[in-house]
Amino acid sequence: MITAGIDMGASAVKAIILKDNEVLGKASVVMEIDRLKSAKAGLQAALDNAKITKDDIDKIVATGIGRKVVDFADKDSTVVGCDARGIVAHNPSVRMVIDIGANEARAIKCDETGKVLDFAVNEKCAAGSGAFIEAMTRAMQVSLEDFAAQSLLSEKTIPINAQCAVFAESEVVSLVHDETDRKDICRSVHDAIATRIASMARRVKVEEDVALIGGVAYNKGLVDSLERELKIRFIIPDEPDYIGALGAALLATKL
Fold it and tell me: Bigger pLDDT: 10 or 18?
């Protein structure tokens, strides 16, 4: 059986093709204004990678915040459910997963089958998401990679008190103008985000083993801040941004 999972994120579309539960192909494309067109482009890129055509696919499941626009999918499923199913398939020991996306973050507890037992979502403010980090890098005029690297060089945290991403950006600009060491600013931004995400995660009780997924999981500076805040070591997949799409493709095998 050949299935496809399409994860419609805020900034990217990830698609995975499975054949008998093994990855046949995958792709990630930038999310454009026309989300349906982006979904089709993401699926086609994955099909090209798998060297098959859409006619070869038996079932398609869409997930992500834009899942409802994927009118060619056989079914859509929540991000929470797909994250849980995908991470347990990737690493059977995981019982909790934290997913940090561009616009929101979520903490999910699941059992050994990938069934969701509890979850919490932070979706009201960008201050706990990847968009917050991107805003801070623009304020400091550095790349995401350099921002993360600088953070790891610091041993000092400067309190960033604003709960809103807009006001927090103003704080960061003020710190830059005051000639505060840039590496300390980078760490402070990551620590501020980590505090918000950790607070969300504790609502569902943090227990080992915990996985970190989503595109932000590539940011080693934030990973360091989160691990210090939660006092744990994360399990991080090699491609943490594809776990939701993997879960969707696996759910498609049950249709």
Answer: 18
